[in-house]
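Page 37, continued from 36.
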């Protein structure tokens, strides 16, 4: 069974899959972002997985392999991990993907990463001494859309030893 990546944001989540060498969003009823409330994560996630199964013409419950791309809130991450139960095969901290993105985008002077870092999901990320630092949104930061950030996932997986599998 294929692995589905579940990307968590501050109040939405989305699904991605690897198709060949590309990582593509999976749209459910034409939508990529699915809103959630903290107090109803299990119900909203199960409803989204049912929609995902329907979109892919699979029996409900047949998807059994998800990898979380965590956001900055450990409580939200734990809520989704608990809702997935044994279907969660691992997790990738957002900081790992952000580190890859920062290192690669630094090579493009038009992004001006050294000046303001990267803005994503209402937060700002910079790199200092090889460590990703998170802070408030920076007006000078380069704002990166979610789909563009996902392009750095494969490079992150290939170069990182910090991906957590089998919780």
């Amino acid at each position: 069974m294929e692995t589905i990546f579940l990307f968590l944001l501050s109040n939405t989540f989305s699904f991605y899959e690897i198709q060949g060498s590309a990582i593509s969003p999976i749209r459910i009823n034409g939508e990529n972002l699915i809103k959630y409330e903290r107090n109803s994560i299990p119900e909203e996630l199960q409803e989204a997985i049912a929609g995902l199964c329907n979109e892919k013409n699979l029996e409900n419950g047949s998807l059994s392999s998800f990898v979380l791309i965590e956001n900055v809130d450990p409580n939200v991450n734990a809520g989704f991990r608990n809702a997935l139960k044994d279907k969660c095969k691992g997790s990738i901290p957002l900081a790992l993907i952000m580190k890859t993105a920062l290192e690669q985008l630094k090579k493009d002077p038009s992004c001006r990463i050294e000046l303001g870092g990267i803005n994503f999901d209402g937060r700002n990320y910079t790199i200092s001494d090889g460590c990703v630092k998170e802070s408030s949104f920076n007006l000078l930061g380069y704002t990166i859309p979610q789909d563009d950030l996902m392009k750095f996932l494969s490079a992150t997986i290939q170069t990182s030893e910090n991906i957590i599998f089998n919780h």
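The two ends are 19 Å apart (CA to CA). Flag for discussion at group meeting. The chain has a mean pLDDT of 90.
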